[in-house]
Write a structure and sequence with these properties.
Blueprint (H helix, E strand, L loop, with lengths): L15 H11 L4 E6 L6 E5 H17 L6 E5 L4 H13 L2 E5 L7 H15 L3 E4 L1 H8 L1
Parallel strand pairs: 3-4, 3-5
Antiparallel strand pairs: 1-2
Length: about 140
């Protein structure tokens, strides 16, 4: 077993954002993620360049809100929008709190659950899609 002395620095380890930025600059058109939906033929792909662009756009919006250090509920169905929002939170130093969107067939049950998550997390921001926002607002 090797033990580092107290004076030795720990090796540098890149963060997820360092990796994304590196890949976006060195392999911009390579596929970063592929999301396969319920049907195996339903695939959505995103390149490193596009993922980095989307994450930075979300981060810029959060920064305009002066949201650093705040908590944001990520209310997305499984997919690439969620990944971009999560990375956008990391870029903006916002704490991401993942939550499943309300189930339209069980709104009486899923909306109170969502409200409990919002209250418990003390989130001041919700990131979501237009469709989910219209469902929750109605």
């Amino acid at each position: 077993m090797l033990l580092a002395s107290a004076r030795e620095e720990a090796p540098w380890s890149p963060t997820l954002l360092h990796c994304l930025r590196h890949r976006a600059s060195t392999q911009p058109d390579a596929i970063a993620y592929t999301f396969v939906g319920d049907d195996a033929s339903d695939e959505t792909r995103i390149s490193y360049r596009e993922l980095d662009r989307r994450a930075r756009a979300i981060a810029a919006s959060l920064q305009r809100m002066d949201a650093a250090g705040e908590r944001a509920i990520l209310l997305y169905p499984p997919g690439l929008d969620y990944v971009a929002a999560f990375l956008g939170c990391l870029y903006a130093n916002v704490i991401a709190v993942p939550a499943y969107p309300p189930d339209i067939s069980r709104l009486n049950r899923s909306l109170p659950r969502l409200q409990a998550i919002l209250t418990d997390a003390r989130a001041s921001i919700v990131l979501t899609t237009e469709m989910i926002l219209s469902l929750v607002d109605s």
